[in-house]
Amino acid sequence: MMCLYSLKSAHCGVIAQSNAEPFPLALFGEDLDHNSVRDDVDKAIANMADSQAQHLYLVKYAQLSSQILLHRYEQDDYANLLFANDLYDEITRLRMCSTKYDVDGKDAYDLTNKLNRVIYNTEDRILAYLQFEKYIMPSALAGKKGC
Fold this sequence. Notes:
Elements: E1 2-5, E2 10-13, H1 25-28, H2 39-48, H3 52-70, H4 78-96, H5 105-119, H6 123-133
Antiparallel strand pairs: 1-2
């Protein structure tokens, strides 16, 4: 069972895929505690976080980032556009609101960049991120909602 978390909601269950091919879980990786964060990323977070609040911030960031690896982009369609922009909004909102987790702007920048190197640590994972990024509309970069 896979649980996907966002700032708005949590969804646990079987991830519905648009086609019948088996999902490449190797792209996501092993998640023995089923928190939607790869075990190697969990370990990195434990080593990076200086407080429980920072730990929570990094776990939420990793859960959102993990959704990038779990989504399939085989078809160039409007659903991908909606998915990518909604997820981008949530990631941006988390980073904008990092002070709620006792993480100031510079620390948020440094921590998420360091964590990204762990999350996107293979060529396939980087390519999945680039696939996600190509659906982000330029208008999504302006006029973000507040915390």
